[in-house]
Amino acid sequence: MDSFFREVNGWIYFLGLLIWLMITIWGSFDIRSNYFVKTYCKGKTVGKTIAITFDDGPTPITKEVLNVLRKYNVKATFFCIGTQIEEHQDIFNAIFEEGHLIGNHSYSHDKKIGFFSTKKVVSEIQKNDLVIEKYLGKKTLLFRPPFGVTNPRFERAIKQTKHFVIGWNNRSLDTIMDDENKILKRISKKIMPGGIILLHDTSAKTVRVLEQLLLFLKTENYTVTPLDELLKIKAYEN
Ligand SMILES: [Zn+2]
Fold first, then answer.
1. What are phi and psi of 47, to 5 degrees?
2. Which of 109, 174, 200, 201 is flagged as catalytic?
3. Most buried one in 1, 71, 145, 155, CB count within 10 A?
């Protein structure tokens, strides 16, 4: 009897191991699984380092943002929309000429992008890659999905386009909230080493919040670094 149970136990153990192996192999090779697509929402650092990112530009407001960043000698990252780049080419050029990083934020930023097929998402990303490359002269490896969308179709698309997906851990809500002090308070409360702050270079309000934020970071002894340094990843293909 004893040896019978030992044998059954052995088989159960073996079956368990087999199932675990199969799941692991499936996860590694099946393109439908989310096993390897990672979203970077913060950097691993214990030092007081933080990154500031701007979405949805370039717009005429971007120039004012660049002025503030220059005044405080800070380098940021701009996730640009293809149609906006085509409309404001000079402003787009000014961003990287001043030493800031450029990321891809889709070609159209369509409100329904969360419902797009994988093929359409790939085309949104690649079309903007080409627009960026035309002016910047190289391909950006940084991509931030519009509205922070993550779904299996985006995951599949990103596996094809091979970008680093960049999120945030400090959302300012600067496009939703009107009170500048409240926006600043909201950001300040969530400041932490390795953090990624999300702002939008689309309103004069954000320009004023940015200046106050940079002063606050200075008094807190924080250093603002570009995303590639914070996350220890490559921003561009070459
Ligand atoms: Zn956006």
1. -75, 165
2. 200
3. 145
